[in-house]
């Protein structure tokens, strides 16, 4: 999924939690948006599109461990951080679910580091993702071909559009 859809899913997490807890909404929204993008930090490492989800940052077990550590520390020493931690980790796990569901060139490794098997709802086509995660002029033609492939998956594009547009509807209805 594109970063816009991940940010939108983070906003939806924030919107669903913000009304049930009485805390300052700015840190809550910031945590939700940061969590929605956190797994994609691996895209900055210069890997190819087909490989960028094959890191520890797209491994649910890694985030479960981080979640356990954060909640243990937060509960004991920083209880005020518990609501932002909740939305942060919810946003991360929704990011991973969306990447599993919408995988085009690479799925996620659910049981990494114990297994390197890639999981996705639809079979990924890694050969379509043999280009850098960050666009450059040298690979412009490959990027053009990638976007043609990306948008040829109508069902996935529809889901992504629904995820991206839904926060605007939620905001309009519940403001």
Reconstruct the topology from this structure.
Elements: H1 3-18, H2 25-37, H3 60-77, H4 82-101, H5 140-152, H6 154-174
Could you give a quick summary of the protein structure above?
By secondary structure, this protein is mostly helical. Helices cover 58% and strands 0% of the residues.
Would you kindly provide a written description of the structure presented here, covering whatever features stand out?
By secondary structure, the chain is mostly helical. The protein has one domain. It is 58% helix and 0% strand. 29% of the residues are buried.
Rounded radius of gyration (Å) = 17 Å
The 3D shape can be described as globular
**Beta-strand percentage range:** under 5%
- Quickly give the structural class: mainly alpha
How would a textbook summarize the main sheet?
none
Estimate percent helicity. 55-70%
Features:
mainly alpha; globular; 175 residues; single chain
């Amino acid at each position: 999924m594109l970063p816009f859809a991940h940010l939108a899913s983070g906003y939806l997490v924030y919107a669903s939690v913000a009304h049930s807890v009485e805390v300052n909404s700015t840190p809550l929204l910031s945590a939700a948006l940061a969590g929605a993008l956190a797994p994609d930090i691996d895209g900055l490492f210069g890997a190819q599109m087909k490989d960028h989800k094959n890191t520890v940052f797209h491994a649910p077990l890694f985030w479960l461990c981080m979640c356990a550590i954060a909640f243990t520390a937060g509960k004991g020493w920083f209880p005020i951080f518990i609501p932002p931690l909740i939305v942060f980790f919810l946003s991360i796990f929704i990011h991973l679910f969306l990447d599993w569901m919408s995988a085009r060139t690479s799925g996620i490794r659910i049981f990494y580091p114990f297994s390197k098997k890639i999981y996705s709802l639809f079979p990924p086509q890694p050969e379509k993702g043999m280009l850098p995660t960050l666009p450059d002029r040298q690979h412009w033609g490959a990027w053009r071909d990638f976007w043609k492939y990306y948008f040829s998956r109508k069902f996935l594009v529809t889901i992504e559009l629904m995820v991206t547009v839904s926060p605007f509807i939620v905001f309009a209805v519940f403001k």
